[in-house]
Write a structure and sequence with these properties.
Elements lengths: L4 H13 L2 H8 L3 H15 L4 E4 L3 E4 L1 H29 L3 E8 L3 H15 L3 E8 L1 H10 L4 E5 L7 E9 L2 E5 L9 E2 L1 H4 L3 E5 L4 H11 L5 E6 L2 H9 L5 E3 L14 E6 L6 E8 L6 H14 L21
Parallel strand pairs: 3-4, 3-5, 8-12, 9-10
Antiparallel strand pairs: 1-2, 5-13, 6-13, 7-11, 7-12
Helix pairs in contact: 1-2, 1-3, 1-4, 2-3, 5-10
């Protein structure tokens, strides 16, 4: 079985765009060259990867879907191999993509990206703002080596190294009567209109907090945007439960909101680095990992204290 990375790249591009024509335009190569590469790949694998629809483009066969997923992983590994080789020869350069939970990205990524650029001018850190489900998918597909997220629904093939804990709190309008309390409990909030941050796994976490207390929250609004949650709360439309704590206390439309602690002992989310198990990092990834650790803990992961007792050292090489 002989196939080339070029054939895999043309196959993946055609599958993503569902068209050989569009793939040839994006790759700036002739359509017959793309078609020939796919035909050679199908011959090498002895299977049909696409179903051709007249005037409607391409769709993957059942086997094509499996080959597509594996091809993306293989190409990502090949790209990392090329990057590692380039690092040995020319030093650190290029772009390292980092996945980041969208609720955490504004809090941790700018300082990380700025610091890396200051110390390694030829190395750029890119940030992909995603929900937890997309973070895991991105790791598995090879879109990035490392990501920053909470310890939510991470499966056995994902390694997690926590650095900071984020307990849940109540977010209220500055004018809300409950802001007069140093702490509130969930029953005090039960009848209030709730604005739910409606992201995969995140929504389940927030709802489980109320379920553990035998309370059904009065969810009136749902949004996938943390900024929208804060703006709606600050405008007096309801309250919310969140974990990430920005240093500012005003929304984009310049209304004020307040953070009030919850009196119950509730499940705390931990922020940390995630990667595929047994992954060997590029030198660029190692640099970013170490800087992230220093900014959030001041030490290597694996040292134990009350906030990091569950962490173990990252397999840096």
């Amino acid at each position: 079985m002989n196939f080339t990375l070029k054939q895999l790249r043309y196959f993946v591009l055609s599958a993503e765009l569902k068209s050989v024509t569009r793939a040839s335009q994006k790759a700036n190569i002739s359509q017959p060259s793309i078609s020939a590469a796919i035909a050679e790949l199908e011959a090498a694998l002895d299977t049909k990867l696409f179903t051709r629809h007249h005037a409607k483009g391409l769709s993957l066969t059942a086997i094509g879907h499996q080959v597509f997923a594996e091809a993306k992983r293989l190409l990502a590994q090949a790209d990392r191999f090329g990057q590692m080789t380039n690092e040995f020869v020319k030093g650190l350069s290029g772009t390292l993509e980092v996945g980041c939970l969208l609720t955490l990205a504004p809090l941790v990524m700018p300082s990380l990206m700025k610091s890396i650029r200051a110390h390694y001018p030829n190395l750029t850190v890119g940030c992909r703002e995603l929900d937890v489900k997309e973070v895991v998918e991105g790791l598995r597909e090879g879109a990035f080596e490392i990501a920053i997220t909470y310890n939510l629904n991470l499966e056995a093939d994902i390694s997690f190294y926590g650095v900071r804990s984020f307990p849940p709190y109540a977010l209220l309008s500055r004018q809300h009567p409950l802001t007069q309390h140093a702490r509130v409990n969930l029953r005090m909030l039960a009848d209030e209109p709730m604005i739910l941050l409606d992201l995969p796994y995140t929504r389940d976490y927030f709802q489980s907090i109320f379920e553990s207390a035998g309370i059904a929250p009065n969810i009136v609004y749902r949004t996938t945007s943390p900024q929208m949650v804060r703006s709606m709360v600050a405008s007096g439309m309801g309250y919310s439960i969140l974990n990430a704590r920005p240093p500012w206390r005003h929304s984009f439309d310049d209304h004020q909101y307040a953070i009030v602690e919850l009196s119950e002992r509730l499940p705390t989310l931990r922020m940390g680095l995630v990667h595929l198990k047994d992954h060997v990092f590029t030198r660029a990834a190692q640099i970013v990992i170490k800087e992230f650790e220093m900014q959030n803990t001041g030490r290597r992961l694996g040292t134990t204290d009350s906030d990091a007792a569950s962490t173990t050292p990252l397999p840096l090489v």
